[in-house]
Amino acid sequence: MVSAIILAAGEARRMGKLKQLLPLGKTTILEKTVENIVASRVDETIMVLGYEAEKIITRLSRAPVKMVVNPLYQGGMATSIVAGLRAVGAGASAIMLVLADQPFIDSRVINRLLDEFKRHNKGIVIPTYQGKRGHPVIISLEYKAELLSLKGDVGAREIIARHSGDVHEVRVDSPGVTMDIDTPEEYQSLKAKVT
User: What sections of 87-171 are H helices per DSSP?
Assistant: First the structure.
């Protein structure tokens, strides 16, 4: 069982506004990300919220996801990983860390990563596009204690670096795995490709 944890708690300081709910085509950035995950074969989807959580809960109230509010979200991404991990179902053997601002990763890519995780005897699966590592990342819960001890805003990078021999890279043909939306310029550029 693999549980997806969508990290959607950030303040988006570089964007200057709540980027999760910015329009993207007929939906929003976060709704498109959720749609892609829910359409995949992940066993459960947990969304970790923090900044402006009420607005997101209102907008996505019908989404088939478990919503968790991280009161410590200002402490960085690690606090959201920990909050999501605490909500994972008892049968989970791994988590998939998903960034809320990566709406261009479709369910086929997600399913490929799930298949590769099941097929190979590696505890960490990372997609790559043109040689660059991206997201979402699958991490076995054999690393649960290390995940729970994460601090700051670095995500799981230090765990990946520490266990580089247990990493399986999966080459994908989707540039979406390396594209996130941090600035107004990035948003306008990517929005133009959708509308």
Answer: 107-119, 144-148, 157-162
Q: How many CB atoms lie within 10 A of CB 96?
A: 24
Q: What is the pTM of this model?
A: 0.94
Alpha-carbon gap, residue 138 to 95, rounded angstroms: 6
Where would I find the H helices in 21-76?
A: 29-38, 53-59
Show pLDDT as tens, one digit a residue, over the chain (195 residues): 999 999 999 887 777 678 899 889 899 999 999 999 999 999 999 999 999 999 999 999 999 999 999 999 999 899 999 999 999 999 999 999 999 999 999 999 999 999 999 999 999 999 999 999 999 999 999 999 999 999 888 788 999 999 999 999 999 999 999 988 888 888 888 877 665
Is residue 53 within 8 Å of 100, Cβ to Cβ?
Answer: no
- Note whether 48 and 5 are within 8 A (CB): yes
Q: Domains for the chain: give ranges and CATH numbers.
A: 2-188 (3.90.550.10)
CA atoms within 13 A on the CB side of 58: 5
How far is it, in rounded angstroms, from Cα 48 to Cα 90?
18
Q: Are strands 27-28 and 23-24 parallel, antiparallel or unpaired?
A: antiparallel
Residue 188: CA count within 13 A, CB half-sphere: 4
**Alpha-carbon gap, residue 163 to 118, rounded angstroms:** 18
